[in-house]
Inverse folding.
Protein backbone atom coordinates (compact mmCIF):
# COMPACT_ATOMS: atom_id res chain seq x y z
CA UNK A 1 0.00 0.00 0.00
CA UNK A 2 2.92 2.31 0.77
CA UNK A 3 4.42 1.68 -2.67
CA UNK A 4 1.01 2.27 -4.27
CA UNK A 5 0.62 5.69 -2.64
CA UNK A 6 4.20 6.65 -3.50
CA UNK A 7 3.59 5.70 -7.13
CA UNK A 8 0.33 7.63 -7.28
CA UNK A 9 2.00 10.67 -5.71
CA UNK A 10 4.95 10.64 -8.12
CA UNK A 11 2.65 9.92 -11.08
CA UNK A 12 0.39 12.84 -10.18
CA UNK A 13 3.37 15.20 -9.85
CA UNK A 14 4.71 14.14 -13.27
CA UNK A 15 1.27 14.40 -14.86
CA UNK A 16 0.65 17.87 -13.41
CA UNK A 17 4.07 19.10 -14.56
CA UNK A 18 3.49 17.80 -18.09
CA UNK A 19 0.02 19.30 -18.12
CA UNK A 20 1.29 22.71 -17.00
CA UNK A 21 4.07 22.61 -19.60
CA UNK A 22 1.53 21.83 -22.32
CA UNK A 23 -0.92 24.45 -21.08
CA UNK A 24 1.61 27.29 -21.02
CA UNK A 25 4.17 26.38 -23.69
CA UNK A 26 2.32 24.01 -26.10
CA UNK A 27 5.19 21.52 -26.07
CA UNK A 28 3.26 18.74 -27.83
CA UNK A 29 2.06 19.86 -31.25
CA UNK A 30 -0.29 18.32 -33.79
CA UNK A 31 -0.12 18.10 -37.54
CA UNK A 32 -2.09 21.13 -38.78
CA UNK A 33 -3.04 19.28 -42.00
CA UNK A 34 -4.92 16.61 -40.03
CA UNK A 35 -6.26 18.62 -37.07
CA UNK A 36 -7.95 22.00 -36.73
CA UNK A 37 -5.73 22.94 -33.74
CA UNK A 38 -1.93 23.14 -33.83
CA UNK A 39 -1.38 21.85 -30.28
CA UNK A 40 -2.98 19.42 -27.83
CA UNK A 41 -5.34 21.35 -25.55
CA UNK A 42 -5.43 20.35 -21.87
CA UNK A 43 -8.02 20.88 -19.17
CA UNK A 44 -7.72 20.06 -15.46
CA UNK A 45 -10.81 18.96 -13.58
CA UNK A 46 -10.64 18.16 -9.84
CA UNK A 47 -13.51 15.67 -9.88
CA UNK A 48 -11.91 13.69 -12.74
CA UNK A 49 -8.60 13.64 -10.85
CA UNK A 50 -10.27 12.36 -7.66
CA UNK A 51 -12.26 9.68 -9.52
CA UNK A 52 -9.17 8.50 -11.40
CA UNK A 53 -6.99 8.26 -8.27
CA UNK A 54 -9.75 6.60 -6.22
CA UNK A 55 -10.42 4.08 -8.99
CA UNK A 56 -6.71 3.32 -9.32
CA UNK A 57 -6.36 2.72 -5.58
CA UNK A 58 -9.49 0.55 -5.53
CA UNK A 59 -8.44 -1.62 -8.47
CA UNK A 60 -4.90 -2.03 -7.11
CA UNK A 61 -6.22 -3.04 -3.67
CA UNK A 62 -8.54 -5.65 -5.19
CA UNK A 63 -5.72 -7.03 -7.33
CA UNK A 64 -3.42 -7.19 -4.28
CA UNK A 65 -5.99 -9.03 -2.16
CA UNK A 66 -6.91 -11.69 -4.74
CA UNK A 67 -3.68 -13.72 -4.25
CA UNK A 68 -3.98 -13.35 -0.48
CA UNK A 69 -7.53 -14.67 -0.57
CA UNK A 70 -6.50 -17.62 -2.74
CA UNK A 71 -3.52 -18.49 -0.52
CA UNK A 72 -5.60 -18.47 2.66
CA UNK A 73 -7.91 -21.11 1.15
CA UNK A 74 -5.00 -23.57 0.81
CA UNK A 75 -4.29 -26.07 3.54
CA UNK A 76 -0.59 -26.63 4.37
CA UNK A 77 -1.28 -30.33 5.04
CA UNK A 78 -2.70 -30.85 1.52
CA UNK A 79 0.25 -29.04 -0.03
CA UNK A 80 2.78 -31.14 1.88
CA UNK A 81 1.00 -34.35 0.81
CA UNK A 82 1.52 -33.43 -2.86
CA UNK A 83 5.31 -33.43 -2.41
Amino acid sequence: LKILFQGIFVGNIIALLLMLLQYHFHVFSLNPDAYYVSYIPVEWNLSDWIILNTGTIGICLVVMFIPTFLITRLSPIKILKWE
